[in-house]
Amino acid sequence: MIANNSVLGLIFANMHDSTVNDLTKQRTMGSVLFGGRYRMIDFPLSNMVNSGINEVGVITKANYQSLLDHVGSGREWDLSGKKGGLHLLPPFGHVGSGIYRGRIEALNGAWSFIEHSQADYVLLSDCDTVATIDYRPAIESHIEENADITVIYSQGHYNSAKNQSATVFGMDETGRINDVMINPQMIGECNIGLNMFIMNKLFLKKIVKEAMSRSLYSFRRNVLQAKKEEFKIMGYEHKGFYAKIDSLNSYYDSNMSLLETEVRNKLFKKTSPIYTKVRDNGPVKYGLESKINNSLIADGCIIEGTVENCVLFRGVKIGKNTVVRDCILMQNTIIDNDCNLSHIITDKNVQIGQGRVMTGSETYPLFIGKNAII
Amino acid sequence: MYIKKDCVAMLLAGGQGSRLYALTEDMAKPAVPYGGKYRIIDFALSNCANSGIDTVGVLTQYQPLVLHDYIGSGQPWDLDKLHGGVHVLPPYQTSLGASWYEGTANAIYQNMSFIERYDPEYVIILGGDHIYKMDYSKMLDFHKKKKADCTIAVIDVPVEEASRFGIMTCNEEDLVVDFTEKPQEPKSTLASMGIYVFSWDKLKKYLIENENANTGSKDFGKDIIPNMLQDGQKLYAYAFEGYWKDVGTLDSLWEANMDLINPNIPLDLYDPEWKIYSRNKNMPPQYVGKNAIVENSMISEGSLINGTVDFSVIFSGVTIEEGAVVKDSIIMPGSVVKSGAIVEYAIIGEDSVINSNSKIGIRPELVDNKDEWGIAVIGHNVSISEGTKILPKQIISESI
Hints:
The complex is a heterodimer of chains A (about 375) and B (about 400). Chain A is an alpha/beta fold. Chain A has 9 helices and 28 strands. In chain A, strand 4, helix 2 and strand 5 form a beta-alpha-beta unit. With about 400 residues, chain B is α/β, with parallel strands linked by helices. In chain B, the strands form 7 sheets. In chain B, strands 1, 4, 5, 8, 10, 11, 12, 13 and 14 form a 9-stranded mixed beta sheet that branches. A 6-stranded parallel beta sheet of chain B has the order 16-19-22-25-28-31, with no helix packed on it. Chain B has a 6-stranded parallel beta sheet with strand order 17-20-23-26-29-32, with no helix packed on it. In chain B, strand 11 and strand 12 form a beta hairpin.
């Protein structure tokens, strides 16, 4: 068993922002809303906490107001204790740190925090993957294998036409990584990296300082790819459900996949809950003429109309005689009476007036930005 | 070092609630689930938090485990404070011996040292068994403005119910001129809500006198209020208008839940300015399945609905399987209604299982003799075996 305080969690809140421009216009990838009541950062944060990690740093770059609001003191994840806790690491946190150009520069900017931690190991995670993972066996495997770097991956379908910013790994029979491809032109079953890495702290320090001295900023290109022979890089397979958000389409599909009972059972386990900021909404209220079919609905919604194949976030209102199908409606979206919507994604606080008809398509859901009034 | 507080709240939460039978067998009444995601005590605690009262003593006695666990540090209600906050106060032993709380006044008397630490000007006494939203700070302002010794919150009740309450007669200045606890022939319909603001020095004096007189009841309604009135102290009635519901009986608990889905009842759980806080269970959003029928109901987080739900309140983490029917009923957290089971006009406690093809309760229109009809009740952690029929008014507290 590894002691709780021997692993430091580091979460990169802004990585991959550009893959979902619409959603990250006013927020970080980590604060993108997901699954009715969550934000993307809830998954790595809860996984870390459920794996006994009690010290977590969150590295941010820009647009982080909503992230600060969301994580607060870290109390909702049990990270406001005296030992460890949640630490936000914005740019310009100390002399010499600024807007970073890559993961290595970001780590260098946060190094005084990392240095200060008593942990022997560091677990890095981005916020683009939805999964429930117990990191403990991955860390144990890292120690047992005496690896320099352990990368967590899943077997899944990769399509270069659809997937952006993917890392695909090749491995020998011992699980050692012998090939690292970034956005390869191919279609098929692959070992897809989940952007989660485990390293010894001293090793991480060595590679960060070395790369910085040569002005190399990309962890994937300048470390994983360039040094795969020199370093012992091991793969650890996550076998459960995972969803990578790398486009508005994948965002839509991953939310919709929660309508499958099997997916929900793999993601929401009683023994390892996904924690999030509590908003103290009332329960969902269904009106006299409500018709609900195959939908995921968060607390605080008030539904008078018809809802089919939808994910409704907290505090959504659906008016009388309104039909919404195949939609994702984020927090506090208000749809008035007599509307008909299908394949729409609304960001927070969108209001749609009486009698509107709006249609997107399965392959191209229509996105309506934050605070829009239609 | 204790920082002086203007007002300390004392919340009486030790009652058994024996008229809730199976539902209060292993938890105190204030801990009984209500309204989909709450417990009854959430209303009083949230009212305190929203009224700016940050020091609350919760007096517990009967089956306190669930209640203590639920209140915890008070964080869900913003009552985990550096100075003040929520304090659970069960009976304790002293050098003179140990005694249970003998009455509402005695319970406060035994905790005078808790109140004194904050050196308050005022103490507000609350119950933990009503559903209502009230701004206590307005009542406190009223008390100060009237320079009262005691202010009693009152509500207008129907004449036929008046003999269940402490009934007051007031002059046009709201000064109480007469108070009778549970009168046979009520002189008015102004009923005490069991919410009192006292000037602490006055209350302290009367608590000590009452304790020394040893009347046996040691109760606010029976002793303290009549004694103060007799001595010519200034007691005022503070009129409350709004939703206020006692949930002390199975029928009233059922009704109070059903009120939440009645659009004509003015209890708003969605007001962002006056949220009712509760301890969150970190459950995913609810899922309503492909063959589900859900109408006119309230359903909470973590529930899985594949059957029919109509005119019902479904709490968090409940499973209603495909082919199950739940109508005009309350299903408390974590319970399962299996395929083919029918639940009508019933209350199902926490973590119970209604197995396939069971039938719990019956619609009133199908019963000829109305005296035989009532809500059917299944307690907590009870399993009802396949094909069992539970009649109206039946109360089941052990698995069958």
